[in-house]
C-alpha cells in the first residue's frame, strides 16, 4: 500500500520547471516519475498548472501543483493499494472534478499516476513494460526520428515542425537506431558542406534556415543516400506539420504565402507522390474537421495520417474522428490527458477501431523513460522521441535497447509483423 508521496519542482530539457513525484510503498519499494511539457500544444489538452508568479521562473513555476499533490492528493491516496491503478487515477480525477484537470493540474495528477505504476511494478520485481503490458508485450517500435526541427521548436524560418526518418527496413530496433544515428551524422555533413549548419532545435534535430519546407525533404534524402541507405525501401520519411501554428484566419500560411486548405491538401498529395513519405501528422488545424475529412479521403489510403493536436489523446475527440472518418492514426501523449488509465483507454479505443497509435514524447522532456516502456507494453509499434542527440531524447532510445536485449528471442521489430504505416 502507499505509504508516502513526495513531489518537487525540477527542470525540464528547456530549463523550465516541471514536476517530479516519488511514491513510496509500505514494502519500501518506490517509483519516481517526471512530467514532460509541450510547446505547440493543442487547445483541448488537459490543463498544465503553472504558478503565474512572475517573480519565479517568469511565471512558469509549478509550486501550486506540488502543493496540490501534498495537500489534496496525498491524504486521499495514503494506504491505497498501488496495484489499483484505475481506482487511484479515478480518485484523483474525482478530487479534481473539472473536465480538463485544471483544479489539481494535469501535471500533478500525471506525476502521481506514473509514479504509482512504477512503484507497483517494482513491488512485483517486474519491468514497467511487463507490468503494464502483461505477457503479450514484445513488439519493438519503429523510431520516428526528428532530424530537422522547425515551427515552434526552432528559431529558423521552416514552417513545418518536424521532418523525420523511419528505418522500416531494419531487422531490429537496435539496427534501426544505428541507421538513424548514421543518417543524423550524414545530414550534419550535408548541412556543413552547404554552410547550413546551425545547431539543433528543442527535439535535437538540426534547425537550419531553408528556402522552402520542401528543401528539408531533399536534405533528408541526400543524407539517407550519403549514409548508404535506400530512401523508401530501407528508410522512409514522415512529417509533423503542426499546422495549428501557421493557421491564420482559415488559411495555411507557409513558404511566405497564404494557401486555402484545398491547395494545402493538393500540395501535400504532390509531396507524397514525389517523396517516400509514409506518415503525416496534424496536416490540418485542430478544428478544421471538414478539411481533415477531405485530406483523409485523398491521402488516408496511401499513408498514415496522425492526429495529435486534433485528438489530444482524448477519447471523446478520437470518437468524433472515428465517426467522421478523420485521420487513421493517433499520437499518444500521457500529459495531454493526464493519467495512465485514461491513456491506456484511449490506446485501446484506437486499436479497436484500427487506428494506429504512436507513443510520443513532448518537446520539453526529462530523463524519465516511461514512454519507452509504454510503447512496448501496448505493442503500439511506433515511438516518436526526437533526434539522435540530446540525452532527454537518447534516454528513451537507450531504454529501448535494454528492453530489446531483455526480450531476447521474443522481441519482434514492428515492421516484421506489418505494424506501423503501410509501405508502398
Ligand atoms: P510539443 O510537440 O510537445 O511541443 O507539442 C510535439 C508534437 O507536436 O508532436
Ligand atoms: Zn505533433
Automatic annotation (TrEMBL):
List of catalytic residues: 203 (proton donor), 333 (proton acceptor)
Binding site for Mg(2+): 240, 281, 308
Involved pathway(s): Carbohydrate degradation; glycolysis; pyruvate from D-glyceraldehyde 3-phosphate: step 4/5
Cofactors required: Mg(2+)
MF terms (GO), sorted A to Z: magnesium ion binding; phosphopyruvate hydratase activity
Catalysed reaction, written as an equation: (2R)-2-phosphoglycerate = phosphoenolpyruvate + H2O
Cellular localization per UniProt: Cytoplasm; Secreted; Cell surface
Keywords: Cytoplasm, Glycolysis, Lyase, Magnesium, Metal-binding, Secreted
Domain spans labelled Enolase C-terminal TIM barrel: 137-421
Pfam families for this protein: Enolase_C, Enolase_N
Its biological purpose: Catalyzes the reversible conversion of 2-phosphoglycerate (2-PG) into phosphoenolpyruvate (PEP). It is essential for the degradation of carbohydrates via glycolysis.
NCBIfam families membership: eno (TIGR01060)
Family note: Belongs to the enolase family.
Name used for this protein in its record: Enolase
Organism: Atelocyanobacterium thalassa (isolate ALOHA)
Phylogenetic placement of the source organism: Bacteria, Bacillati, Cyanobacteriota, Cyanophyceae, Oscillatoriophycideae
Amino acid at each position: 500500500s502507499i505509504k508516502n508521496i513526495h513531489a518537487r519542482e525540477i527542470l525540464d530539457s528547456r530549463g523550465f520547471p516541471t514536476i517530479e513525484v516519488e511514491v513510496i510503498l509500505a514494502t519500501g519499494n518506490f517509483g519516481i516519475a517526471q512530467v514532460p511539457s509541450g510547446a505547440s500544444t493543442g487547445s483541448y489538452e488537459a490543463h498544465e498548472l503553472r504558478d503565474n508568479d512572475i517573480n519565479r521562473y517568469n511565471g512558469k513555476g509549478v509550486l501550486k501543483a506540488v502543493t496540490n499533490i501534498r495537500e489534496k492528493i496525498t491524504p486521499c491516496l495514503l494506504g491505497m493499494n498501488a496495484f489499483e491503478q484505475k481506482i487511484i487515477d479515478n480518485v484523483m480525477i474525482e478530487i479534481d472534478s473539472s473536465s480538463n484537470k485544471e483544479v489539481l493540474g494535469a501535471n500533478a495528477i500525471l506525476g502521481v499516476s506514473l509514479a504509482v505504476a512504477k512503484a507497483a511494478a517494482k513491488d512485483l520485481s517486474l519491468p514497467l513494460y511487463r507490468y503494464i503490458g502483461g505477457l503479450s508485450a514484445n513488439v519493438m517500435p519503429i523510431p520516428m526520428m526528428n532530424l530537422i526541427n522547425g515551427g515552434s521548436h526552432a528559431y529558423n524560418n521552416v514552417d513545418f515542425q518536424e521532418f523525420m526518418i523511419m528505418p522500416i527496413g531494419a531487422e531490429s530496433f537496435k539496427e534501426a537506431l544505428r541507421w538513424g544515428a548514421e543518417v543524423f551524422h550524414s545530414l550534419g555533413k550535408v548541412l556543413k558542406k552547404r554552410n547550413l549548419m546551425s545547431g539543433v532545435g528543442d527535439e535535437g534535430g538540426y534547425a537550419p534556415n531553408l528556402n522552402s519546407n520542401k528543401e528539408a525533404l531533399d536534405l533528408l534524402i541526400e543524407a539517407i543516400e550519403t549514409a548508404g541507405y535506400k530512401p523508401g525501401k530501407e528508410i522512409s520519411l514522415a512529417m509533423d506539420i503542426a499546422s495549428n501554428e501557421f493557421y491564420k484566419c482559415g488559411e495555411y500560411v507557409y513558404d511566405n504565402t497564404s494557401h486555402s486548405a484545398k491547395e494545402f491538401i493538393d500540395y501535400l498529395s504532390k509531396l507524397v507522390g514525389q517523396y517516400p513519405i509514409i506518415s503525416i501528422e496534424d496536416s490540418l488545424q485542430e478544428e478544421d474537421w471538414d478539411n481533415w475529412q477531405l485530406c483523409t479521403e485523398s491521402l488516408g489510403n496511401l499513408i498514415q495520417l496522425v492526429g495529435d493536436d486534433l485528438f489530444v489523446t482524448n477519447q471523446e475527440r478520437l470518437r468524433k474522428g472515428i465517426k467522421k472518418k478523420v485521420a487513421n492514426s493517433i499520437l499518444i501523449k500521457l500529459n495531454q490527458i493526464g493519467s495512465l488509465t485514461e491513456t491506456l483507454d484511449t490506446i485501446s479505443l484506437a486499436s479497436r477501431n484500427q487506428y494506429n497509435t504512436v507513443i510520443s514524447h513532448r518537446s520539453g522532456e526529462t530523463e524519465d523513460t516511461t514512454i519507452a516502456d509504454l510503447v512496448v507494453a501496448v505493442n503500439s509499434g511506433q515511438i516518436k522521441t526526437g533526434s539522435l542527440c540530446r540525452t532527454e531524447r537518447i534516454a528513451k532510445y537507450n531504454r529501448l535497447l535494454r528492453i530489446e536485449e531483455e526480450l531476447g528471442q521474443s522481441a519482434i521489430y514492428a515492421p516484421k509483423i506489418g505494424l506501423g504505416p503501410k509501405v508502398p
